[in-house]
Amino acid sequence: MNLRFLTLAAGAALALAGCSTANNSVASTGSPRPATNDAVPYASTYKPYSGTATALVGATVFDGEGREIDNGTVLFADGKLVAIGGPELAIPAGYTRIDGTGKFVTPGVIDIHSHLGDYASPAVAANSDGNEATSPTTPEVWAEHSVWPQDPGFSRALVNGGVTSLQILPGSANLMGGRSVTLKNVPSRTVQGMKFPGAPYGLKMACGENPKRVYGSRNQMPSTRMGNFAVDRENWLKAQEYAKGDHSTRDLGLETLEGVLEGKILVHNHCYRADEMALVLDMAKEFGYKVTAFHHAVESYKIADLLRENDVCSAVWADWYGFKMESYDAIPENAALIANAGACVIIHSDDENGIQRLNQASAKAQAAGARMGINIPDAQVISWFTYNPAKAMGIADQTGSLKQGKMADIVLWNGDPLSVYSRPEKVWIDGALMYDAMDPKRRPVSDFELGQPGEGDVK
Amino acid sequence: MSFRKLLVTALIASAAPLLSTLPANAQDMVITNAKLVIGDGSDPIENGTVIVRNGTVVAAGTGIAAPAGIPAMDAQGRWVTPGIVASLTDLGILDVSGVSDSNDSSAGGAAFSAALDVAPAVNAKSENIAVSRAGGVTRATVTPFASRSIFAGQGALIDLGADPDALMKPRASQYVELGEDGARLAGGSRTAAYAQLHYALAQASQPDGPTGAIEGGDVQVSQFDIAALAPVVSGEQTLYVHVERAADIRSALLLKREFPKLRLVLVGASEGWMVARDIAAAGVPVITMALNDLPARFEQLAATQSNVGRMVDAGVKVAIGQFSDMNQPRWAPEEAGNLVALNKMPGASGLSWNEAFAAISSVPADIAGMGGKMGVLKPGAVGDVVVWDGDPLEVGTVPVKVFIDGVDQPLESHQSKLRDRYRSLERSDLPPAYNW
């Protein structure tokens, strides 16, 4: 299932020629800074598609921020949410009514941890673009430069998963893997056409087994967990020096790290074990940066108090377990225990199949909690795959919940989204209907699939 | 709060007094007042009863008198089913897949391939078995991964009981790769894979045993390996053939013309729906991952979640399986449930609830050559009975009781003990390490 994990394990055995072992400094290009600080390279060219003013009525509405409305009304027009309320909410003239009786409405699903486009289908070597595994620190690489917009995985995430926004991260071979990119899940000829306007960048970091295995197997630093930390710390020192400098010579990697120190770039840290997360939090204090979220944090339940105190989210699977040493203590109650301690829970996929069922994974995690007496309301569980990831990706002011003025990123489910028996029926992104189960043509078919077996099929 | 949630909560609240009369290790038992699933595709039976004696089902249905003098359980209307049968797993042959020292699922440096036999390697105390048992899985086929040739080796049938003896049937199967994996393992092409398969099976068919071996290229298959294929040719062992694309499926089906006794089972078959009538006409069953819907490889371009439903509609016997690596056996019920969800989707082909449950119970049992003996609650079948805390195909539903051969099974694991240890993070008199 998890081809990316397998690929990485296999890749670790390959000896890559030409990689630097002498030091771990980040790459330097020596090119001058852009003329103005306002210039945004590779800027988003995304423009919402057009939609019609719509009133969703009669459905159970979860707003993504903990509110549940029975027989709710959701109004949206011109790409924005206009109003959310009960049956009493007046529907302005000109709105198309959609009867949602017996159905459910949530904000668009958001996956904080995806490699779509970077590890695209088909998963052939030519499409394997997620790990720049030639140096343990590559903060200079940007995931968006690897994204293949024609990855058929984007369409599956949309139609089966209701995913409207997602963060594409570099892989975890490197301690500092590079910049992430946040996308709207709208088919485009270019990655710029998918980039979420105004979303902050993230820095993918990784602790634990992967970096030390990949580089240790080449007899290169790091080969141990203490090596992991030493290399990280050396690079943060360089970043602090760079930040004090005059920037007369640009350094792409240090620009990224400086952005983290300034709080403009959010740290997304792959980290499984509780003890390592605690060490990373101290490293962040040592150098004055913040960890926004630990990803794959299967042991967060052991330090949920610490995570709450440090205001760090845990992005987790529901019940992946035991596939590598650092996942051996994963338990299905992890998410519920984190939530019960008052810390932030995000359900993530890290998988082109799992991204199609983040709602189901959340329901599983909820049920595991209920069995140990932790009862988390449905409306809060919905936030695990909507509002909470939006917050941790720095886009919660624009999407992630059904609030007036936000982007009309909406899923109409044909039943309770926390049930195995429910699927998205309609998905709107910025108010544009991008998927309709009732209309065979209202689903994207990527260039890759065009004219090939299975083109346009239900998937 | 949703209806689904209320139901679960109510069931949990009433769970405590359930089984106080059932002594451990009884191989006799009766469960009454069950929403009883036979597992053969028939409708659930309200107010059903199942009786197990000496570890074997003696009666299941409605209107059956509960015998006196054996441990009895009132299921209070809960769902009661046969144990899940997980097809093509790595249960018991690895502890942690990423820790090679603990992983016996493949042998990339070995001199042998087809002769490899998982039976002596199966560890009944594997944590993966305990975790799967707690998920309602009671029987499994275990098969190795191919790494030295197109032949992966011989698989076994196991039970997941908490006793030292897991093996039900050793050397039950052989597994061969004939798609993209087969091409790679054979030396670079499907053509090589077919040449090697034909050569090996022809050699194995010789009445006095093989006289040759595959050698000289990058891939070797020894005479000892070829000898291990004799029970494949004679039909004593099931032959699992992994193929995905429609053309490969058609080619694989032709093997039965040349070797008519082959007990062929197609594995994968992502594009099976495109040739479903051919598969049905050949009478060859399929074991597949239910939810593959991506062109993960060129051989899976037409993958769709409707694959299972379309094949079943065409008359193919299909089990949901391939529970190895990252696809855990305890996810079988929710994968089946996802196929039920397709019934509401225009243009999609799903399974009815009854078909979906059969696809993880009686159908995989049939394919493993154990039809009527497991995966069903019928007289003569093993006494594997699971009592669930809700609809077994719904996400989040888990067993409250698992019986294997009529024996009440422990559901504790490394995971459940970690949960209990870290239930509270309050500092106490001693560190958490003393809480066990």
TrEMBL record, chain A:
<feature type="domain" description="Amidohydrolase-related">
    <location>
        <begin position="104"/>
        <end position="421"/>
    </location>
</feature>
<dbReference type="InterPro" id="IPR051781">
    <property type="entry name" value="Metallo-dep_Hydrolase"/>
</dbReference>
<keyword id="KW-0732">Signal</keyword>
<dbReference type="GO" id="GO:0016810">
    <property type="term" value="F:hydrolase activity, acting on carbon-nitrogen (but not peptide) bonds"/>
</dbReference>
<dbReference type="InterPro" id="IPR032466">
    <property type="entry name" value="Metal_Hydrolase"/>
</dbReference>
<dbReference type="Pfam" id="PF01979">
    <property type="entry name" value="Amidohydro_1"/>
</dbReference>
<keyword id="KW-0378">Hydrolase</keyword>
<dbReference type="InterPro" id="IPR011059">
    <property type="entry name" value="Metal-dep_hydrolase_composite"/>
</dbReference>
<feature type="signal peptide">
    <location>
        <begin position="1"/>
        <end position="22"/>
    </location>
</feature>
<protein>
    <submittedName>
        <fullName>Amidohydrolase family protein</fullName>
    </submittedName>
</protein>
<dbReference type="InterPro" id="IPR006680">
    <property type="entry name" value="Amidohydro-rel"/>
</dbReference>
From TrEMBL, chain B:
<feature type="domain" description="Amidohydrolase 3">
    <location>
        <begin position="295"/>
        <end position="397"/>
    </location>
</feature>
<dbReference type="InterPro" id="IPR051781">
    <property type="entry name" value="Metallo-dep_Hydrolase"/>
</dbReference>
<feature type="signal peptide">
    <location>
        <begin position="1"/>
        <end position="26"/>
    </location>
</feature>
<dbReference type="InterPro" id="IPR013108">
    <property type="entry name" value="Amidohydro_3"/>
</dbReference>
<keyword id="KW-0378">Hydrolase</keyword>
<dbReference type="GO" id="GO:0016810">
    <property type="term" value="F:hydrolase activity, acting on carbon-nitrogen (but not peptide) bonds"/>
</dbReference>
<keyword id="KW-0732">Signal</keyword>
<dbReference type="InterPro" id="IPR011059">
    <property type="entry name" value="Metal-dep_hydrolase_composite"/>
</dbReference>
<dbReference type="Pfam" id="PF07969">
    <property type="entry name" value="Amidohydro_3"/>
</dbReference>
<protein>
    <submittedName>
        <fullName>Amidohydrolase family protein</fullName>
    </submittedName>
</protein>
<dbReference type="InterPro" id="IPR032466">
    <property type="entry name" value="Metal_Hydrolase"/>
</dbReference>
